[in-house]
Write a structure and sequence with these properties.
103 residues, mainly alpha
Length: 103
């Protein structure tokens, strides 16, 4: 029953519940979203305003916004990725040499 929604649609859903006094179930049915999602958006908007309804998935902090701990975690993740890539290349080279010796 869920579907993708825009920021404006989320605001409309919240206002449908809060201003027009409809239930979460009515809003969910009317806008074709889940009950849980309608409720979640209303609670978020009541606590933190409409800005809380913005979908932030996939967005990263800029370098200026990162704390020292965030910077270290990012560096750690990058180094682990580089190490895994290096191991993969080494394993490939080893297997290639082994195959060349056979044939």
């Amino acid at each position: 029953m869920s579907r993708k929604t825009t920021f404006e649609e989320r605001i409309e859903i919240v206002e449908y519940v809060t201003k027009h006094k409809h239930s979460y179930a009515e809003a969910a049915e009317h806008f074709q979203v889940s009950y849980q999602q309608a409720r979640s958006w209303v609670i978020k908007a009541q606590k933190n305003g409409y800005e809380a309804l913005i979908d932030k998935r996939g967005h990263r902090k800029s370098a200026a916004e990162l704390t020292e701990v965030d910077k270290l975690r990012l560096e750690n993740r990058q180094l682990k990725s580089q190490l895994a890539d290096k191991k993969l290349v080494e394993a490939f080279a080893k297997k290639l040499l082994e195959l060349q010796r056979r044939g």
